[in-house]
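Bumping with the actual sequence this time:
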Amino acid sequence: MKKKFLPVLVIVIAFFGFSAKANNVTIDMKFNVLGQDKNNSFNWILDGKVVKDGYDATTGASKSNTTYLFDSVRYESKTSKKTTIPTGLRCLVLFPLSDYETAEMDAFTVFQINKEIIIRFVHRGVAYEIKTDKNGKIRLDNSFYYAPKVAENIGGIFLIKEEYLIPGGNPANMADLDWEKITLINDVPSATKFYSGTLTASLKKGILSVKGRISM
């Protein structure tokens, strides 16, 4: 059985407008987990509106402003801020839109056993896990998990809490989180109406790809 372990990271924060909630979103993400890659991309279609995006090294932000625009998918409405997708999915698709240093800071890690893929990262004190089935399929209802408050903000720096740190670990290094000591819970949206569907993940020569269509 072939097994791969690849370390990395990312994270950023993100509107088409909330006049009408989008019903269909197509996702096509590519992220090189081995290092910075100009070909990293996140292209998505929201009810026919196409956004092609990538990292802009000059500005240090996404080229097409996905970090803001994708909130029309992420939230039920501009005012309620109730989520319609797992928070971990929103974080995942923004990885290609940041520099590699961000991924390293969040200890973005990919494990692969045949077609099964596990993605882990820690962002702003929250540990996220995305786990496919044995065929590389990601289901929005049961593939996303998280553990809140595994690290706390001390003077603007997130430090892993002592009870979750590996023996002799550095609390400022998210890679030193002991995943065996945390409790993961289902990363479900908070809105009453939310997206469902299946995405397909693959890892080839260090390129993590996630593709598919979700609907509401």
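The tokens above came from a reply further down the thread. The first strand starts at residue 3 and ends at 8.
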